Amino acid sequence: MSSRKFILGLAVLLAFVSFTVQTSTVSAKSKKAKNGTIKILTNPGGLLLTIDGKARGETLTEYRAIDLEPGLHSVQVTLPNGQFWIREIDLPAGRVKCVVVNYKPLPPMAKSPCPFPLNISAPKQVTEGEIITYTADVAYTGSGPIRYRWNVAPSSARVISGVGTPTLNVDSTGLGGQRITATLVADDGSADPACAQTVQAVSVIAPLEKKVIVAREYDECNNCTFDDQKARLDNLAVELQNDPSTRGYIMAYGGRMSPLGQVEKLMSRARDYLVTQRGIDASRLVVVNGGFREEDSVELWIVPSGAGAPQPTPTVQAGEVNPGKGRRRP
């Protein structure tokens, strides 16, 4: 930041956060992302936004998400004093970069041959796995190059790039629930201690929420004919075909007065129908003898990858069963 801009009374703080959008994989084969996303907010809001020379409406005081093709994009915000905030943002495919522009007019400041004042722009909080970009702004009218010396704590925080430059990128992976403190010392290379300025920024790392993956009961058929079961099995087959990472569980129960071997019959014919008629790989199907209930029953379950197996819930004890005395199901 030049001293001229400080004389004009302008200080703009910039924060970038880039992170990989992590989603639960529901397909055996992930699809490669085609676009990236820029999320931008300004304070104050209502500022004109232009990207690659094309007007994009006004900014808000909350994030606006804009999907763009991967590559370098020119982002321009018209500030309240009529000047422009302009940055070139390199957007990778499948990544999100968050841009914060804070406009705050400052009183006129005297010129200084030393790097003064020194500011760091950084997000106050990110989610574990996001990349934090610390950006330094400094007023300087001296002739020598400014030296930037960064220190990051804790030591487990991995610096990706930017050592020796005004912009430092730090990976927050594995630091959920902790804080990353970035300390910058900037000087003009002279021995004058007054020309060495120190500034610090702290970002809180919110831990990722652990998603609990559970099996879900898809359908249940009590005392049904096989024709009725076929329609339900057809629907289950569609679900399994739409998501190849899941498995299907067939939980069968014999009735209190069902014939001997009824449970095995219910399990095998349901599995055989899915395999021979609907083309479901037999390795994706699990049949379970659930025991006994008051009447024949077949439960169909969808079990995502990583979920525990469903458990049988019989309602009749084996000693209470009177096989062969009930009517036989077709």
- CATH class identity of the largest domain: Mainly Beta
Q: What order do the helices and strands follow?
A: HEEEEEEEEEEEEEEEEEHEHEE
Biggest sheet details: 8 strands, mixed
Q: Output the number of helix runs.
A: 3
CATH topology tier name of the largest domain: Immunoglobulin-like
What is the CATH architecture descriptor of the largest domain? Answer: Sandwich
User: What radius of gyration results from the CA coordinates?
Assistant: 32 Å
Classify the beta-strand content into a percent band.
Answer: 35-45%
What's the end-to-end separation, in Å?
83 Å
Question: Helix fraction?
Answer: 10-25%
* Total individual domains: 3
Short description:
12% of the residues lie in helices and 43% in strands. It is mainly beta and 330 residues long. Strands 1, 2, 5, 8, 9, 11, 13 and 14 form an 8-stranded mixed sheet that branches. Strands 4-3-6-7 form a 4-stranded antiparallel sheet, with no helix packed on it.
How would you portray this structure in words?
The chain has 330 residues and is mainly β. The chain has 3 domains: 1-110, Immunoglobulin-like; 112-211, Immunoglobulins (Immunoglobulin-like), CATH 2.60.40.10; 216-320, OmpA-like domain (60s Ribosomal Protein L30, Chain: A, 2-Layer Sandwich), CATH 3.30.1330. It is built from 3 helices and 20 strands. Mean pLDDT is 84; it is low at 1-31 and 326-330. The strands form 4 sheets. Strands 1, 2, 5, 8, 9, 11, 13 and 14 form an 8-stranded mixed β-sheet that branches. A 4-stranded antiparallel β-sheet has the order 4-3-6-7, with no helix packed on it. A 4-stranded mixed β-sheet has the order 10-16-15-12, with no helix packed on it. It is 12% helix and 43% strand. The longest helix is centred in the C-terminal third of the chain and has 17 residues, at 226-242.
